[in-house]
């Protein structure tokens, strides 16, 4: 029997609740709850984001088609981006944050801060 979190899922059929549950089960199976304190999780998100940035460290600015055409690089990007997501899900679980409502609220704020036609995005 396959573990529910190991079944192939796509963005079209997995919910955030599914992903959060898979992460919660992964952490619980390993008894990692004691290590998943907010400071540790925030640091882990930053570390994994830095590992994602490292993949582009010395590359010239490349357009997405060139990056997408490099399967080895894309695999590394998927892995590091997934690590960022995993720790984000773990932190949301630990602090009981509803990511969908938090994201929706933040997008409302972003729309107000950066209205259509605004040049403010270049400053931030």
Brief rundown of the structure:
This is NTP pyrophosphatase (Non-canonical NTP hydrolase). One of its GO terms (molecular function) is nucleoside triphosphate diphosphatase activity. With 124 residues, this protein is an all-alpha fold.
Q: How would you describe this structure to a colleague?
A:
GO terms for molecular function: nucleoside triphosphate diphosphatase activity. Keywords: Hydrolase. This is NTP pyrophosphatase (Non-canonical NTP hydrolase). Pfam families: MazG-like (PF12643). By secondary structure, this protein is mainly alpha-helical. It is 60% helix and 0% strand. It has helices spanning 16-29, 38-54, 64-68, 71-94, 99-113. The protein is globular.
What is the count of distinct domains? 1
- The share of residues in helices is 55-70%
Unreliable stretches (pLDDT < 50, length at least 5) are none
Summing up helix and strand content along with how strands pair, one would put the structural category as: mainly alpha
* Largest β sheet strand count, sense and barrel closure: none
CATH class: Mainly Alpha
Number of helices: 5
Give me the CATH architecture, please.
Answer: Orthogonal Bundle
Shape: globular
**Quick one: how many beta strands?**
0
Radius of gyration, taken over Cα atoms and rounded to an integer in Å? 17 Å
CATH superfamily: MazG-like
CATH topology, by name, is: Helix Hairpins
How would you spell out the order of helices and strands? HHHHH
The fraction of residues assigned to DSSP E strands is under 5%
Instruction: Give the mean pLDDT.
Output: 91
Span between N and C termini? 49 Å
GO molecular function, one term: nucleoside triphosphate diphosphatase activity
Organism: Algisphaera agarilytica
Keywords: Hydrolase
Protein name: NTP pyrophosphatase (Non-canonical NTP hydrolase)
């Amino acid at each position: 029997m396959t573990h529910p979190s190991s079944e192939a899922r796509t963005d079209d059929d997995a919910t955030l609740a599914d992903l959060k549950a898979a992460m919660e089960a992964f952490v619980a199976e390993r008894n990692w709850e004691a290590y998943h304190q907010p400071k540790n999780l925030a640091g882990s998100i930053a570390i994994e984001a830095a590992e994602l940035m490292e993949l582009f460290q010395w590359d010239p600015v490349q357009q997405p088609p060139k990056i997408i055409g490099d399967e080895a690089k894309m695999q590394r990007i998927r892995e590091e981006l997934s690590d960022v997501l995993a720790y984000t899900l773990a932190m949301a679980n630990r602090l009981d944050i509803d990511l969908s409502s938090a994201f929706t609220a933040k997008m409302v704020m972003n729309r107000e801060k950066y209205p259509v036609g605004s040049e403010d995005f270049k400053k931030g």
